[in-house]
UniProtKB/TrEMBL annotation:
Belongs to the aldolase class II family. GO terms for molecular function: actin filament binding. It holds the Pfam family Aldolase_II. Residues 20-203 form the Class II aldolase/adducin N-terminal domain. One of its GO terms (cellular component) is cytoskeleton. It comes from Hoeflea prorocentri. SMART domains: Aldolase_II. This is Class II aldolase and adducin N-terminal domain-containing protein. It comes from the Bacteria.
Length: 254
């Protein structure tokens, strides 16, 4: 296949449902103030081994992403960056490496959201379990403390190796931001939403300069397991987001 495939604007597109979900989370991220001018990228695999994936175009604001204007890329095509409609080179470096090397990471969402990025800038970027949301990520976070600059191909390759443990679902990218993965768009976005909430709680608690009341590891582990398997929560979250967008910004699904 060619690196970038243009699809007709039709529901006959075999990846249409994934396109709609991915476009929806771009639009919702604007509402959450997680966009970064025309930077940052979300991607979602569409084939069995995860190497073909959808991603936003180069230099387009999240609020203008639609289901039909997402790129379809092949992580194994070395000619991708030579095409006239090539993606952002740092997006290609990071997301292609993830989809090439981490088949369990079918969806990858990268943002510089405020509180997650503050956490990524601390000498200790760990997330102690101090409430239900922070406990949700107990033993599920990998911290990258070796920021190597913009995520061109070499840096993207290095970052992708940090997801070798399938239990890790969040990468705190030191001095950079956060990267969240999942099996579906709904799962990954739900995790991103709750991780930013958790980071906000933790950073706010640090600001009080009072001692933290940390949940014991065994309880935190149980909370994380229970929330990970909570029936239908991520899917319902996604469904509600799309219902609200259907009302207010229906062009996202075109």
């Amino acid at each position: 296949m060619s690196a970038i495939v243009q699809h007709p604007h039709t529901h006959n597109d075999p990846h249409w449902d994934v396109r709609v979900d991915l476009a929806a989370v771009f639009r919702w991220s604007v509402k959450m103030n997680w966009h970064e001018a025309v930077a940052n990228h979300f991607s979602a695999a569409v084939n069995e081994d995860g190497t073909q994936f959808l991603m936003n175009r180069d230099q387009i604001h999240f609020s203008r992403v639609t289901a039909s204007n997402l790129l379809l890329l092949d992580a194994n095509d070395p000619q991708t960056m030579e095409l006239p409609d090539a993606p952002d080179p740092t997006a290609w470096g990071l997301h292609a490496a993830i989809h090439r090397n981490c088949p369990h990471a079918r969806v990858a969402l990268h943002v510089h959201s405020k509180y997650s990025t503050v956490l990524a800038c601390l000498a200790d970027s760990s997330m102690p379990a101090i409430d239900q949301n922070t406990a949700m990520f107990h033993d599920r976070v990998v911290i990258d403390g070796d920021f190597g600059g913009l995520a061109f191909e070499e840096e993207g390759e290095r970052c992708s190796q940090l997801f070798s443990d399938p239990k890790k679902i969040v990468m705190i990218m030191g001095n950079h931001g956060v990267l969240v993965i999942g099996q579906t768009v709904a799962e990954a976005f739900n995790r991103l939403y709750y991780f930013e909430r958790a980071a906000e709680t933790l950073i706010t608690a640090y600001m009080t300069q009072k001692p933290l009341r940390v949940i014991p590891d065994d309880i935190a582990a149980q909370v994380a397991d229970d929330l990970e398997s909570y029936p239908g929560h991520a899917e319902r979250h996604m469904s509600e987001i799309k219902l609200l967008l259907d009302r207010d910004e229906p062009d996202y699904a075109t």
